[in-house]
Design goal:
The protein is of the alpha+beta class and 231 residues long. The chain has helices at residues 2-24, 77-93, 113-127, 129-142, 154-160, 165-174, 178-190, 217-228, and strands spanning 57-59, 66-72, 97-103, 198-203, 208-211. The relative contact order is 0.20.
Length: 231
């Protein structure tokens, strides 16, 4: 009995270490965010995010006076809310503001978020920039705020926005854009992203302004107007 008790201690230590190691593993980071952010959660920039390029998913002109880059989790309730806010901003500001969406899936909160992000990237590769945003719209329509997307409908969602199902499935299964998603995730963390949505406004002269959480429309407009005015 004493021998069994003595053996149980190191075994327990090994198992505990394995569990801790598993909990820390998340897209190659040990400091991965585990929260979604509302307007009360600040984002503190540690370094700039990569500049916007033609490879980004964008609504509006890359040459707009302000480009708001949103790092999103497609199952985050605040991201769904911010999606509607940004659509109104694009409408209200005309060509003065553009909107870029990048990947920041928080797997510990939303286990299916990385696969939905992968599906969105595959839809974009097969159907183009407009198809990417149609795919996001469909995901959010099927799973509005405080609900979860049915992952078994991923292929049907792609088909619904005009993407070939066979090519889409091959892309998802191969994990073709996993490296892209992981890089964008790590870029957001390095820049101070502590939850989703994490957004940064970039001006034409390259200055960057972190935007805390899911700002309501009027507050976001105040931020945008201040940047446009050079304040």
């Amino acid at each position: 009995m004493e021998q069994k008790q003595n053996l149980s201690i190191p075994i327990a230590i090994v198992l505990a270490g394995a569990l801790i190691g598993g909990a820390l593993f998340f897209i190659g980071r040990t400091d991965a965010p585990t929260t979604n952010t509302n307007t009360n959660t600040p984002s503190v920039a540690q370094k700039d995010i990569p500049g916007v390029t033609s490879a980004d998913h964008i609504i509006g002109s890359i040459d707009a006076p302000i480009v708001i880059v949103e790092y999103t989790d497609l199952e985050c309730p605040f991201c769904k809310q911010f999606d509607g806010t940004m659509k109104q901003v694009i409408k209200d500001y005309g060509g003065k503001v553009a909107w870029v969406v990048r990947n920041f899936p928080l797997q510990q909160l939303h286990p299916n978020a990385p696969k939905i992000a992968l599906g969105a990237e595959c839809a974009a590769a097969l159907g183009g920039n407009a198809t990417y945003f149609k795919f996001l719209d469909s995901v959010f329509t099927q799973a509005p705020i405080n609900t979860f997307f049915d992952i078994t409908k991923l292929t049907a969602t792609a088909e619904g926005v005009g993407v070939d199902a066979k090519k889409f499935n091959a892309c998802v299964i191969a994990g073709t854009y996993q490296d892209k998603i992981s890089k964008e995730f790590n870029d957001a963390v390095a820049a101070g992203g502590q939850g989703t949505p994490f957004s940064v406004a970039i001006t034409k002269d390259g200055k960057q302004y972190p935007i805390p959480g899911s700002q309501p429309l009027e507050q976001l407009k105040t931020i945008i107007d201040g940047i446009l005015a050079g304040k």
